[in-house]
Request: fold
Amino acid sequence: MSAAVLIGLDWGTSGARAYRIDAGGTIIDTRESASGLQNLGQRTFEAAFDELLGDWRELPLPRIAAGMIGSRNGWLEVPYVEAPATITALAGGIRATPGGELAIVPGVITRDEGGTPDVMRGEETELYGALDDITADALLVMPGTHSKWVLARSGRIVDFETYMTGEMYAVMLQHSILGRFNQSDGELGEAAFLRGVEHGLRAGAIAHDFFAARTLVLSGELAPADVADFLSGLLIGREVRDGRQWARDRGDTLSQVGVAGADALSGRFVRALVHAGITARHIPRAAARGLFRIAQAANLI
Amino acid sequence: MSAAVLIGLDWGTSGARAYRIDAGGTIIDTRESASGLQNLGQRTFEAAFDELLGDWRELPLPRIAAGMIGSRNGWLEVPYVEAPATITALAGGIRATPGGELAIVPGVITRDEGGTPDVMRGEETELYGALDDITADALLVMPGTHSKWVLARSGRIVDFETYMTGEMYAVMLQHSILGRFNQSDGELGEAAFLRGVEHGLRAGAIAHDFFAARTLVLSGELAPADVADFLSGLLIGREVRDGRQWARDRGDTLSQVGVAGADALSGRFVRALVHAGITARHIPRAAARGLFRIAQAANLI
Reply:
């Protein structure tokens, strides 16, 4: 068994993971806890950190973290690096916690034409982990509560855009009138999902499309069991439409599209992209490998 | 005092109103109850009706109702009339409750190019009440939980489109991450609202704009007290952008735009429309006058 050279942490809002990583960037073993930022309660970050690491705390290894742990509500607010951002710039923006427990990777900030900021924390690290070759050109879609579309060029995070797709889905399904019709069994209804994707890919107002979902049920043209999948398709389809336009406006040809995220959700995005005529492949998210590469760039290992 | 010739009811999801109306179509007096469809509990429609009318129940007058009372979950499901719909078609679609207590006005259904249905119940009546001249050409914006944009031509409801703007606002502000930042005092912050309108009028993804609201707060560029007004402006601005395109696609020149709704919300829509370069005037909603006109067309009075 190879020896660990690094402890990497992926520490976000809902949970935290620690990896022991070897000299090849491969995970040796993983520890997990529910101690995300929103679950800390009265505990300090130090306490949650000790609990997560356990006896790894004694290992004489560098430790590096990415994610919301570096945000204003985290252990230490690490200033954003401005896009276009290189891995070297990320490495240069690393800050250590006051007690030296942990080096924290910065997030990235970009601004649109109107000057409105957009931000990421954690995805920059996952992106550098997900790419086979970190200097490759890619358009990476990172689905989730707050999906990101990220344009990478020759090793730089050139620009990105966030869509609150996952949160809109959850909130509208749970709290709007659409929830009243929802009788989903939790299985993916492929036909209803693709029907939603088709709606979403069309021009139109999402506020109108939501109402259409309700009306289709009332008119008997959409089964209550299909509401959740239709809505999922509608929102993902709309994200694909909007993200595609965003990427094209930035000169991307959509020839290298990767979807980096959890299996089930990424599968939905790949389906929606293919439905829009875009070839896309699923790439596992790879926070540990990203942490390893950034630690290398920072000469921590 | 003039004599009543009609009892008109505006009976919706959250409440019910009854009007005694004279031969000139003017309201003599009004009775109100909270007995909307969602508040009936175990009571029958008959019981709620008796309670609302009280001693008006004994008056030998025709009675006519509009709103969700004619829906599937109402007292009697009255089939939709298809757009384009004339007031004569609405009058012809009236159905009486089994006991003859009440004549109920039908709603209107339309379908978009893709065949997806859109529906209204109550707004058709308010529209015929709101127009000075029911044969006038108009584009009527009817703001609310489910806003409607309605195109009227020579006395016909030609087409309409619903936007779930009000519900999206409420649900996202209460249940999404945006709610965490909201510290509104309830007063309209004009500057924040118009800033939201400007965002909304721009092309872009609403799922991205929601996230931008969060990011602007985090970067100190939007005060927590302004989040609700910014979000309101964003959603109303987007509705104006989408509705404007919808109307233009149907050949409307946006020269006769009326906003028919409650004062405060209509004021916001008028502001947003003017900000988009569209002259708009506020028209009070007039269910009673609409009921009177439809009752005339049906020879009930």
Remarks:
- Chain A has a mean pLDDT of 94.
- Chain A touches chain B at residues 72, 114, 116-119, 146-147, 161-165, 167-168, 171-172, 174-177, 199, 202, 204-208, 210-212, 215-216, 218-219, 221, 235, 238-239, 242-243, 246 (CB under 8 Å).
